[in-house]
Amino acid sequence: MAEGFRQLSRIHFICTRRSADVRFRKTAPLGKRIDDVCDNISSNESIKRVLNLYDCLLANLNDCDFHTTMDESDDHFENAIRDMFADFKPYFANKSIQKRINELLQSSEIERKASKKKSVLKLYEYENVRNFTIGINVLIAAYNFLTNVIPLDSQDGQLHHETLTSVNKIGYIYNDLVSLEKEIKEKSTSNLIIVLKQERKYEKWQFAIDEAVQMLKDELKLFELLLTLTWHLVIDLYNDEFMYLLIIYRIK
After folding, report:
1. What is the distance between the alpha carbons of residues 123 and 110, in angstroms, rounded to a whole number?
2. Buried b or exposed e, range 57-90, using 16+ CB within 10 angstroms
3. Using an 8 Å Cβ cutoff, are 184 and 194 in contact?
4. Rg (Cα) of the chain, in Å, rounded?
5. I want to staple 166 with a disulfide (CB 3.0 to 4.6 A). Which of 100, 200, 205, 223 is the partner?
6. Is Metal-binding tagged as a keyword (predicted)?
7. DSSP letter at 71?
8. DSSP 180
9. What are the residues whose beta carbons fall under 8 Å from the beta carbon of 111, sequence distance 6 or more?
């Protein structure tokens, strides 16, 4: 396994010189930064800023002329998002990425409605929704659009599905663990620990946290098994196919 990771590192060194990889690394922070901006909404003025930013991005996406009330923001990161969005436009024309973005938006709406009603989703509901709202599916779809490294037969296979699901689960469990305090403060119900506490009827938060940590440990073991199976599946293919493993490994 260690030898496999060394080979992945070597392939990564080669591929980082490709323009496609550079474009991906340049545009990937878009989603993270937009998410951070939305997470920091604390006033009506902040809400207006975010809505204005989204209007700018959508207008850019649709090649429309759009004059906002806030062409330049005091937040340099917001201005950077607008500048970088031109590089993200080609992705949205891809049907696979459109599908992933729609899944993310629809699932995010389910989370938002639950929090607004101060209701907590059932565990099975939350896991299904969170699989999409973590956003990893969009990143992988965008990367494959640029590099075309995941064969179509692999995309439709059970191993690909199970591996991607495992990566998503690792991502959202870790994210929910580190963001618990913030979400309790904001009275959000979209967090695995909050869901576990209600589902199991735990009296203390620590019990729910401990279960989430154990879930993360178990999922990491499962991921290593799936990665090994994937490695053997593509070992005889052209070197570019190793990029699929690299994407999964880097996200982990």
Report:
1. 14
2. beeeeeeeeeeeeeeebeeeebeebbeebeebee
3. yes
4. 20
5. 223
6. yes
7. S
8. H
9. 121, 129, 130, 133, 190
Q: Which residue has the tokens 């992933």?
A: 100
Residue with tokens 């459109």: 98
Tokens 């006033």, located at residue: 43
**In the structure encoding, which two tokens stand for residue 216, read together?**
């993360």
Q: What residues contact residue 252 under an 8 Å CB cut-off, 6+ apart?
A: 167, 170, 220, 223
Contact 82, 53 (CB under 8 A): yes
Domains assigned to the chain: 1-249 (1.10.600.10)
Residue 135 burial by Cβ neighbours in a 10 Å radius (0-12, 13-18, 19+): buried
Give residue for tokens 């699901």: 165
How far, in Å, CA of 228 to CA of 133, rounded? 27
| Structure confidence by residue, pLDDT tens digits, 148-185 | 666 666 666 788 889 889 999 999 999 999 999 988 98
Token code pair at residue 138: 């969009």
How far, in Å, CA of 220 to CA of 210, rounded? 16
DSSP one-letter code for 96: H
The residue type of 14 is I
Contacts 24+ apart (CB under 8 A), 33-38: 33/77, 33/80, 33/81, 34/81, 35/135, 37/77, 37/78, 37/81
Q: How far is CA 166 from the centre of its chain?
A: 13
How many other C-beta atoms are found inside a 10 Å radius of the C-beta of residue 92? 13
Q: 163 exposed, middle or buried (CB, 10 Å; 0-12, 13-18, 19+)?
A: buried
